[in-house]
Design goal:
The complex is a heterodimer. By secondary structure, chain A is α/β, with parallel strands linked by helices. The radius of gyration of chain A is 20 Å and the shape is globular. Chain B has 2 domains: 48 residues, no CATH class; 221 residues, MetI-like (MetI-like fold, Orthogonal Bundle). Chain B starts with a helix and ends with a helix. Classes of the chains: A alpha/beta, B mainly alpha. At the A-B interface, loops of A face helix 8 and helix 9 of B.
């Protein structure tokens, strides 16, 4: 399997005394697709940012390596984060010297051939996100980090993007770390689903068989229900005091 | 059935028959902004030849044309315009480059901001034209005080717009750039400056107006050349036609400067949906 190996040991991150990550241990094998799910604010995105090098851990170690050469890491965000003043091709080859030909190739592979010289403002949301995916995949990164990449898309476009990502990974496998709110997405795409709860890893669930999985699968549906109900429990219903406050706020004033 | 068809036919017959109509429509649209100025000049001319206008208060357009021709024939007008243009260009370049450099440094570095911003904000509130007496005292009536005054008028609006333009760049784009391994210089060149460009250009456009304004004042005081001198000299000789000519030249120059910056904007911001549309329409 090609791709980088990720080793995370006792990783912690605090923001102003609040522990967002609390002793994370995580190993991701070469070519493995791991999804991180959990309620809002459990530290999924913080963990991904640290792996991306955009944030520093308060303590603990992170190692990303690949036999023979330094591992290349690329990240894709929830927003497309395309530069509006660069053309589609200019965005895809950002940070690389030249390599227009590679950029054109990857744009063709994701179905945006012929749109190289247009500006992002004329693209649809799905096309913009595909451009962002092309940028992330340029030059075959060893580790692909995805931070809720399809969260802002409509259901149909999201399904199409999931298909596209799966087929691209089938052609050239690499290690992937995906943060998502979408439990079904995690179950469909990954080899392993990790559930996070208040800065810790609460559960690690290895999924059998090749990915992507069939959407209608009964075992998958059962797992999805189970995971969602446990996540709902984490998120918690609004506290009674909050409910009372809300009611007061909604009441007409005299 | 037949009625409906013929109705359709006559409806399509009402539409412009060819591209010629659309072309003339576009030309008319382009000429529309000039209707009002031309109308005003015609009104002015009418008042002058009908005797409603006292020529010793305001000369007519033809008087201004006459004096323009005689000044051009004597080579004076070109000379004064050239001198004024030179001063504006030099002063503007000096002020804009300083403001841009200072703005970039302060916009990018929190330390530089902490050191310089308070001082710049304080100095900014002093009306730069209040420095005219001091400038004359320091530099006499040479070229330096005029060019420095223009530069002073320009520097702050470029500075302020550069700083706030850089501040308003989406931090998510900068984070993206960092995650894609861009160096500091690449980040500035590929993300921060293009993101701030729109506002920097707004500052430059405003600064061009201030530059002309400053020049008028600076040339009216202690000068032997330039458009301001021409107007001042004409006042002493009671040549109203020359004064009106100079005022008209200032108006055209101001419009021209604005037009040029709009062209630059349309070119540099062609990626911007609102600018590309504006560029094709106006």
């Amino acid at each position: 399997m090609s791709g980088a190996i990720v080793n995370v040991r006792h990783l912690a991150r605090s923001f102003g005394g609040k522990r967002v990550l609390d002793g994370i241990d995580l190993d991701v094998g070469a070519g493995e697709f791991v999804s991180l799910i959990g309620a809002s604010g459990v530290g999924k995105s913080t963990l991904l940012k640290i792996v991306a090098g955009l944030d520093q851990p308060t303590s603990g170690t992170l190692r990303i390596h690949k036999p023979g050469k330094p591992a290349e890491v690329r990240m894709m965000f929830q927003e497309d984060r395309l530069l509006p003043w660069r053309t589609v091709l200019g965005n895809v080859i950002l940070g690389t010297k030249g390599h227009e030909a590679d950029g054109v190739d990857i744009l063709c592979a994701i179905g945006l051939g012929g749109r190289e010289n247009e500006y992002p403002s004329v693209l649809s949301g799905g096309q913009r996100q595909r451009t962002a995916l092309a940028r992330a995949l340029l030059h075959q990164p060893d580790l692909l980090l995805l931070d809720e990449p399809f969260g802002a898309l409509d259901a149909l476009t999201r399904a199409a993007m999931q298909e596209l990502l799966s087929s691209l990974l089938r052609e050239s496998p690499r290690t992937v770390l995906l943060v998502t709110h979408d439990v079904e997405e995690a179950l469909l795409l990954s080899d392993r689903v990790i559930v996070m709860r208040s800065g810790k890893i609460a559960r690690s669930l290895s999924l059998p068989g090749p990915r992507p999985r069939a959407r209608g699968d009964a075992e998958l549906a059962r797992l999805k229900e189970e995971l969602i109900s446990s996540l709902l429990h984490d998120e918690g219903a609004p506290a009674p005091s909050n409910a009372a406050r809300l009611e007061r706020a909604l009441q007409p004033h005299d | 059935m037949v009625d409906a068809t013929s109705g359709n036919l006559s409806a399509s017959g009402d539409l412009p028959p060819s591209g010629l109509w659309r072309l003339s429509g576009r030309v008319a649209w382009q000429l529309l902004p000039w209707v009002l100025p031309v109308l005003l000049i015609l009104l002015w001319h009418g008042a002058a030849i009908s005797g409603h206008l006292n020529r010793s208060v305001l000369p007519g357009p033809l008087d201004v044309v006459d004096v323009t021709i005689s000044l051009v024939n004597r080579g004076q007008l070109q000379h004064h315009i050239l001198v004024s243009l030179q001063r504006v260009a030099l002063g503007f370049a000096l002020g804009a480059v300083t403001g841009l450099a200072l703005g970039i440094i302060v916009g990018l570095s929190i330390a530089a901001r902490q050191i310089a911003d308070l001082t710049v904000q304080m100095v900014r509130t002093v009306p730069h034209l209040a420095l005219v007496p001091l400038m004359i005292f320091w530099f006499g009536i040479g070229e330096e005080p005029r060019i420095l005054l223009v530069a002073l008028g320009v520097v702050f609006s470029v500075y302020i717009n550069t700083v706030s333009g850089i501040r308003s760049v989406d931090p998510k784009l900068v984070e993206m750039g960092r995650s894609y391994g861009l160096s500091k210089a690449e980040l500035i060149w590929s993300i921060i400056l293009p993101g701030a460009l729109q506002q920097i250009l707004t500052g430059i456009r405003y600064a061009l107006g201030v530059a002309w304004l400053t020049l008028v004042v600076a040339e009216t005081i202690a000068s032997r050349e330039g458009l301001g001198f021409l107007a001042q000299d004409a006042r002493e000789l009671l040549r109203l036609d020359v004064i009106v000519l100079v005022i008209l030249i200032y108006a055209v120059a101001g419009w021209l400067a604005d037009f040029l910056t709009r062209l630059v904007e349309a070119r540099l911001l062609s990626w911007h949906p609102s600018y590309s549309q504006q560029g094709s329409r106006t």
